[in-house]
Amino acid sequence: MAFLSDTLARVKPSATIAVTTKAAELKAAGRDVIGLGAGEPDFDTPENIREAAKRAIDSGKTRYTAVDGIPELKKAICAKFLRENGLTYQPNQITVGTGGKQILYNALMATCNPGDEVIIPAPYWVSYPDMVLLAGGTPVPVVGTLENRFKITAEQLEAAITPRTKWFIFNSPSNPTGAGYNRAELKALTDVLMRHPQVWIMSDDMYEHLVFDDFEFVTPAQVEPGLYDRTLTCNGVSKAFAMTGWRIGYAGGPVALIKAMGTIQSQSTSNPCSVSQYAALEGLTGPQEFLATNKAVFQRRRDLVVSMLNACPGITCPTPEGAFYVYPDIAGCIGKTSAGGARITDDEAFATALLEETGVAVVFGAAFGLSPNFRVSYATSDAVLAEACTRIRSFCEGLRAV
C-alpha cells in the first residue's frame, strides 16, 4: 500500500513560490540576487488598516468567527460590489476565505466531479490547473497568443466548450501577462457563454484596481447580467491593499454555491483569521486615496520595464493593461548559447542561465502554459528594476548562435 495519496501525483509545486524560495536561498548564501518572481506589492499595508488590526486585538476580537466571515465584513463586501461593479449581493451570497486562492479552491472542490472540464485561458496563473486537478476535474487550456496580446477570442472559447465543461476561469487583468479584456472583448466571450447554460464562470478580479492608462475594468456578470446566477465573482485585499500576508479573499455568488463552499471551508481551515477580517473591513470601508497613488507608481514601473526589456536583443515585451507583471517573448533567444556556455533550449533554460550568470530570478513561461516567455513582477523599486533589466540586456547581448 502506497503511503502518499494518488492525488499528489496529479499536481506539482507552485513554480512562482519555487523561484522565490531559490532566490532567497541564493541571497542567504551571499549571492547578489534580484528576485522578480514574487507577485507581491512592495508597499507597506496602509496605516489605517494596521491600526484597525491593533484595535481588534486590543478589544479581544481574537476568537473564532463565523466560518465564512464576520457579518460586518460581508456587509462591506456587498457594498463594494454594488459601488464598484454594479452587482447586488446579499450577505448570504458572500463568502470570505483565507486568501483568494482558498476561495477558488473551495469552489472547485465543491463542484468538480471526475471528468468535469474547466476551461482556463493561457497564459494562466500557475495554480489554476493544479487546483482543478486536486478537485478531480480536467483543466482545458486555451492559448491567447502574443499576436492577440495574450487574450483568447470568442471563437476559441466556443471551440473549447463541450458537454463536460463545468467552469470557465476568467482573470483580467491577468497574472502572468497583465493583459486586460475591455468591455467589447469581454462581451464577445459572455455572448458565447450565454449559449451554453451548463458552463459556470469563475471571475478572478484580484487585480481590479491595478489598471493603467484609460483602461476600464469590467467583470463578467457586470457586462452580461444574464450570467449573474452562474457566476462566482472573486476578489480580495492582497494586491491592491498591499495585504498579501493577511490572507483575506472573498467572493459573491449564488446562495447554493456559497453554502457549499462554506461546507468545504468548515471542514478544512474554518474561519479566516479574525484580526485579518477586521483589517480587511477597514480596507474596504476606510480611506481609498492610496489606491490611486500606488497605481501611479506601478504604471511608472511598467513603462520603465517594458521600455528596457524591448531594448534587449531577442526579446519582445507587450505593454500590459494592468496588474504588475510583464510577460516578454524570448523566441529570438532560443537556440543560442549564453556567455557562460549554457544552451538556451527553452524558457526554463533561459531563466536558469539568467539566474546563474546574472543573479536575476524570473519565472519561466512554461509554468504559465505558454512558451517561450518569462514573467517579471515589477512590484519592486525603480532602481532595482533598472538594475535587473540592465543585467537581462547584458545577458541577451552575450547570447551567441551555435
UniProtKB/TrEMBL annotation:
InterPro entries: Aminotransferase_I/II_large (IPR004839), AspAT/PAT-like (IPR050596), NHTrfase_class1_PyrdxlP-BS (IPR004838), PyrdxlP-dep_Trfase (IPR015424), PyrdxlP-dep_Trfase_major (IPR015421), PyrdxlP-dep_Trfase_small (IPR015422)
Catalytic reactions of this protein: L-aspartate + 2-oxoglutarate = oxaloacetate + L-glutamate
Enzyme Commission numbers on file: 2.6.1.-
Cofactor requirements of the protein: pyridoxal 5'-phosphate
Keywords: Aminotransferase, Pyridoxal phosphate, Transferase
A GO BP entry: amino acid metabolic process
Any one GO MF annotation of this record: L-aspartate:2-oxoglutarate aminotransferase activity
Domain Aminotransferase class I/classII large: start-end pairs: 32-392
Source domain of life: Bacteria
Coiled coil residues, start to end: none
Family recorded in the similarity comment: Belongs to the class-I pyridoxal-phosphate-dependent aminotransferase family.
Subunit architecture: Homodimer.
Name of the molecule in the record: Aminotransferase
